[in-house]
Design goal:
It contains 6 helices and 19 strands. The chain is of the alpha+beta class and 293 residues long. The chain has one domain: Pnp Oxidase, Chain A, CATH 2.30.110.10. Strands 10, 11, 12, 13, 14, 15, 16 and 17 form an 8-stranded antiparallel beta sheet that branches. It has a 7-stranded antiparallel beta sheet with strand order 2-1-5-6-7-4-3. Strand 13 and strand 14 form a beta hairpin. The longest helix has 10 residues. The mean pLDDT is 95. This is Pyridoxamine 5'-phosphate oxidase N-terminal domain-containing protein. InterPro entries: Pyridox_Oxase_N, Split_barrel_FMN-bd.
């Protein structure tokens, strides 16, 4: 089933159920040849899931040589040589058979992205995900980065805290992209949010806010939050490779004029210097990004 009651509730509230039904026809369980070819070109993959111990939801970044993630069946992808380090908050989830995971492969060079949600199981060389949902999104709000190079830099030691430091606040407020993991009773999802730098506001060491820009009307993310407020955020320094992960809860605020704001309360923060060995070129911002005040 493409939509659960949470997504349906948001679609009805916003008045886009018919549009959502049309878009939902593109969601399948099979990985088409064009999608399989796209995956094999990617040097990174973002995934979202809940830690089986404690239930905190996190988004994590995987990197590897192109081909480290590939379709190994009509409904399966396999990840090899690019597994999570033991210190990553989702390492335990991927080691647990049957964990619900959401994945998103995003290519800044072509401004294309593909999402695959399903259930993971460990394999001798990494892990595999059997797909429940496979679909692509439009390039809206996705910044273009022409190229990348491999940087010789070992990952730093993760730094954990209960709130954002002043430096981490500046990191978040200068971001043009972040990834958002959410869950529902029968699955997980990982999505992308983009905008001009400053589109995410840090209102306190624990609180973030951003405007929910108009999208494809599916409301998978906001639908998940309607039924389960747990969420995980991932911010990436596209040049230095630093990764900032936050877990906590999120809520959607609806204004009378139809505008939506999402508020996020962080309960734990993990910053890993040089977590990604990939150095991307500077961005060309999406023409769809709304202007900021």
């Amino acid at each position: 089933m493409t939509y659960h009651r949470g997504s349906r509730a948001v679609q009805e509230r916003v008045g886009v159920r018919e549009v959502a039904d049309h878009v939902g026809r593109s969601v399948g369980q099979g990985i088409r040849p064009v999608a399989a070819a796209f995956l094999e070109l990617q040097p990174m993959l973002v995934l979202g899931a809940a830690d089986p111990v404690g239930g905190a939801v996190w988004a994590s970044l995987l990197t590897g040589e192109p081909g480290f993630v590939r379709a190994t069946g009509v409904r399966q992808i396999s990840v090899t040589g690019g597994g999570l380090r033991g210190s990553d908050p989702l390492a335990r989830a991927l080691a647990t058979p049957g964990t619900s995971v959401g994945t998103i492969a995003l290519d800044p060079r072509t401004r294309r992205r593909m999402r695959l949600n399903g259930r993971a199981r460990p394999t001798p060389r990494g892990f595999a995900v059997e797909a429940d949902q496979v679909f692509s999104n439009c390039p809206k709000y996705l910044q273009k980065r022409e190229s990348y190079e491999k940087a010789e830099r070992p990952p730093g030691t993760p730094r954990r805290s209960a709130e954002l430091s002043p430096g981490q606040r500046r990191f978040v407020e200068s971001a043009d992209t972040f990834f958002l993991a959410t869950v529902h009773a029968h699955g997980a999802d990982a999505s992308h949010r983009g905008g001009n730098p400053g589109f995410v506001h840090v209102t306190s060491p624990h609180e973030l806010r951003w405007r929910d820009y108009p999208g494809n009307s599916m409301f998978l993310t906001l639908g998940n939050l309607e039924t389960d407020p747990r969420a995980g955020l991932l911010f990436l320094d596209w040049a230095a490779g630093t990764v900032l992960q936050l877990t906590g809860t999120a809520r959607t605020e609806y204004a009378a004029d139809g505008e939506r704001m999402v508020g996020f309360t962080a309960t734990e923060v993990v910053e890993t210097p040089a977590a990604s060995p990939i150095r991307w070129s500077p961005p060309e911002y999406s023409p769809a990004n709304p202007s900021l005040p």
